[in-house]
Amino acid sequence: MGKLEKDVSKEVKIALDALEASGAVLWWERLNSGKVRTEYGGWLQLCKNGTSDFIALLPVEGGILPYFIETKSDKGRQTPAQLQFEEKVEACGCLYELIRDVKDMRVTIESVTNFQKNKLNSIDFS
Fold first, then answer.
1. What pTM was estimated for this model as a whole?
2. pLDDT in tens, 31-65
3. Among 3.50.50.60, 3.30.428.10, 1.10.10.10, 3.40.1350.10, what is the CATH number of 5-116?
4. CB within 8 Å of 69: residues ≥ 6 apart
């Protein structure tokens, strides 16, 4: 049996913490979409439906590149709203990636940031 989406998300959080500590990621945040009921009975709107699970800022030559990360299980599929979000952020020149295995992040970050391969290899992604 493959990993559940919540397990992939947990691994991504751990990896982003390590990457931020190393300088390969400048900042990151977990994003939540939808609405939640407040303790007073009202509703609080979170991010719009379709928003990715995470955003990270990557240091690139000449600036910063927003990196949107959507986590899914081995068989998980993007919703139509998530596909629209992917198209929108890519049209703006941002990076979007569907992650089923946290190790894919290593390849992406290494290729986009030119972060030293030996430094990335020393970061524990598990």
1. 0.87
2. 988 889 999 999 999 999 999 999 999 998 889 99
3. 3.40.1350.10
4. 12, 52, 53, 54, 55, 56, 96, 97, 99, 105
